[in-house]
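Quick one:
INPUT:
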């Protein structure tokens, strides 16, 4: 038995059944411990998530799939509580980093916005993608938000006025006047813009689960990333800034790229940063020159390396050691702080 579920003797493959039986025994043994071991608990939850997902695939049981996702979230929570308790990274090395976004739920929300834009970007290319991300963050809660010209002119866009015009012409963005009026807006007289696809439905639901207090935190984080002092000084183009933002959400706790520091899969990265491999190399070189990336290397399948120490406060770590999904928002957003203390009732 595991998580109050009987494991059928007929379950196949046998190796899956054996894994579930062993996990049940390991969770029961963990519950008998006199002292918690959050690293061990996180590992158990990750194994449970993989096993339950395989079980769901074998039986087409949606409840097993939901249980797998809960186990994934519990693993994230355990690793974060380990970080909080030790004051170090999940591997025990390095000092605590005071991050602009301080907790895992905020990191997941940031990833959910990037994933949503990757799926729903109205125009091709990295410039349109970056502008769409920033406008989405500015309007995410109600579908409307205030903009000033500087919000657009600091993004490294080659033609911000023309790009805003294209977003308006295709219906993705609504502006009350002309694009010139928007670019001329100042803080004392901002322009209110609308993104119709983000306006909540009649029941109040929308594409994101975060509220109005979370939205400005996420928007402020993104603004800090794309207007980073060294990126501005280097006059980094929109593609480099979009890559910087994406990589900030695809690191381990200590800033190594990818889940577990094993690198970011190029196939996944291409969905978030729409550039060809040659252009990606140029932007990686730009980020390295701007002291954003170190030890960066593009292999056949991954971008490896780590973010520099100076930008670690802007990172949104992947706390799970398993490969993170390309669309993180789909797993939902639950309160994580209490789940790591408990193994499931096996």
């Amino acid at each position: 038995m595991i998580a109050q579920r009987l494991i059928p003797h007929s379950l196949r493959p046998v190796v899956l059944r054996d894994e579930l039986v062993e996990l049940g025994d390991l969770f029961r043994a963990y519950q008998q411990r006199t002292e918690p071991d959050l690293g061990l608990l996180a590992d158990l939850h990750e194994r449970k998530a993989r096993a339950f997902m395989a079980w769901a695939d074998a039986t087409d049981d949606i409840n097993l799939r939901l249980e797998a996702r809960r186990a994934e979230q519990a693993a994230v929570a355990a690793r974060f509580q380990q970080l909080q308790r030790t004051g170090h990274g999940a591997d025990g090395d390095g000092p605590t980093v005071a991050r602009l976004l301080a907790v895992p739920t905020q990191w997941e929300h940031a990833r959910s916005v990037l994933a949503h834009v990757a799926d729903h970007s109205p125009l091709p290319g990295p410039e349109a993608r970056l502008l769409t991300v920033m406008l989405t963050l500015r309007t995410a809660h109600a579908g409307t938000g205030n903009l000033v010209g500087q919000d657009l002119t600091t993004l490294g866009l080659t033609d911000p006025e023309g790009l805003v015009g294209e977003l308006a012409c295709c219906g993705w963005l609504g502006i009350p006047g002309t694009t010139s009026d928007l670019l001329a807006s100042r803080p004392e007289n901002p322009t209110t813009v609308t993104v119709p696809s983000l306006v909540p439905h009649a029941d109040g639901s929308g594409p994101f689960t975060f509220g109005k207090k979370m939205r400005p935190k996420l928007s402020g984080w993104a603004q800090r990333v794309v207007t980073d002092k060294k990126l501005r000084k280097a006059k980094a183009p929109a593609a480099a800034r979009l890559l910087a933002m994406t990589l900030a959400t695809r690191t381990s706790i200590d800033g190594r790229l990818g889940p577990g520091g094993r690198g970011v899969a190029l196939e996944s990265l291409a969905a978030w940063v729409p550039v060809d491999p040659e252009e990606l190399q140029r932007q990686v070189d730009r980020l390295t020159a701007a002291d954003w990336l170190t030890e960066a290397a593009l292999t056949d399948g991954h971008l490896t390396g780590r973010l520099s120490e100076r930008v670690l406060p802007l990172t949104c770590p992947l706390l799970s050691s398993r490969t993170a999904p390309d669309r993180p928002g789909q797993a939902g957003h639950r309160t994580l702080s209490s789940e790591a203390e408990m193994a499931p009732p096996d």
